[in-house]
Amino acid sequence: IGMLEAFWTIAAVAARRNSTIVSFGGTTFGGPFLLRRSRLVGLTPSIRIPLGRYRPDEHFDLSAILANWNRGQEFSLELWASQYGVAGPWERDTAGAIREHLLAGEIPEATALEEARLEAIHALYERLAPAYAA
User: CA-CA distance, 77 to 106, in Å (whole number)?
Assistant: First the structure.
């Protein structure tokens, strides 16, 4: 519950700054997962997570945007990052590797890979966002 509470606290601060939510798969997996899990453990979300399509000004879901909002065209973060020249540990499926590290109790290794993923998401956002500015 602690991680979810921390997420909603940070989200509330970001919302007060009129920040855009940036994710990779957040409209189809991350957002719905956070909302379901929060309800399951009795937490009330501090913000509304926009899950609709075609609204990158509210929720910039890189996975959806790069696939032109076509679920059949969605590919991995590793693929898109390598296509756009974003550096990272792209020789393997980092999400799967993070899971393996977590299951083995290797928290520093999982954290390092997740940080690389977040840096890639930020770099892709910086590269693509100007084309979607209102």
Answer: 22
